[in-house]
Amino acid sequence: MAGLQGKVALISGGSSGIGAATATLFQSEGATVVVTGSSQASVDAAKAALPGVEVLVSDAGDIAATKALVDRVKAKHGRIDILFVNAGIAKFAPIEGVDEAFFDSQFDVNVKGAFFLLKHAAPEIPDGGVIILTASVAGAGGGLGGSTVYGATKAALRSFGRTFAKELAPRGIRVNTISPGPIVTPILDKNGFTTAQKDAFIAGAATRVPMGRVGEAEEVARAALYLAADATYTTGAELFVDGGLIDL
After folding, report:
1. Which stretch of DSSP H or E encloses residue 197?
2. Please, which pLDDT band fits residue 168 given cuts at 50, 70 and 90?
3. Would you call 184 helix, strand, or coil by DSSP?
4. How far is CA 210 from CA 180, 185, 242, 243, in A?
5. Residue 134 half-sphere exposure, CB side, CA atoms within 13 Å?
6. Assigned domain for 17 exists
7. Active-site residue set
8. Is residue 247 part of a domain?
9. What's the whole-number mean pLDDT along residues 38-56?
10. CB-based burial of residue 6 (10 Å sphere; 0-12 exposed, 13-18 middle, 19+ buried)?
11. For 46, phi and psi rounded to 5 degrees?
12. Has residue 246 been placed in a domain?
């Protein structure tokens, strides 16, 4: 690994799950890491779980908050070498169960918030920097029933990965997307699943994955580290971390 010594990394949605696993890995590779959580409670928990990582409250769906976040990181650290746009929410419902609030809540965080974080942060990323986005197999035809809205938000992120890569290529900023398959993260608990429902979801997902299991957050984190440190001739790409779900 090339390592991340001396780099400043900002990870949105980094208080748990994939973001927290990536923060831990980036820190072990020498980066100064800043992560965000959506509430004071999540930030307090992350501070205890991620010693040495700076944890800030920032509402990923609030455009003003995304600008304030970038300004705060710039003021303290001077730049953002690596931006990992990872914050997102996932809600599932059949089409007849989708109302405007359900639709808007996911697009506000997963799409609008992500876009404006990218827009605000791009000028503060030095030439040669790195942007990584977390999409999902749900945005590439690998979604479950009930994921029409969630899948659409992740399809938008896949598009952002390609278009931002094109626009930022003259500055040498590499932009790539990770699309995880079924991963065990606290997002399952946030959906209000009971233990039995969570176990059934995991077991059902495993039967659809060619590798026969669901993934771990640390496996996605290692993919993020590859894109941040070693994939020096890669931009506009999408890396599926899904046990072969999409391709096999």
Report:
1. helix 195-208
2. very high
3. strand
4. 14, 20, 9, 6
5. 28
6. yes
7. 150
8. no
9. 96
10. exposed
11. -70, -35
12. no
Domains contained in the chain, number: 1
What letter does residue 16 receive in the DSSP assignment? Answer: S
Give this prediction's pTM.
0.94
The answer to the question of residue 2 being in a domain is no
CA angle 15, 130, 87 (to 5 degrees): 25
Closest CA to 26 of 43, 1, 58: 1
Beta strand 215-216 pairing with 183-184 = parallel
Average pLDDT, whole number, for the chain?
Answer: 94
Region of residue 176 (phi > 0: left; psi between -120 and 50: alpha; otherwise: beta): beta
Q: Which two tokens mark 81?
A: 């070498």
> Residue 205 in contact with residue 214, Cβ under 8 Å?
yes
Q: pLDDT band for position 1 (50/70/90)?
A: very low
Range of the domain at 142: 8-241
Return the CATH number at 183: 3.40.50.720
- Assess contact for 175 and 164: CB atoms under 8 A: yes
Residues 6+ apart with CB under 8 A from 77: 8, 32, 34
Q: Are 36 and 14 in contact (CB under 8 A)?
A: yes
DSSP H or E segment with residue 132:
strand 130-134
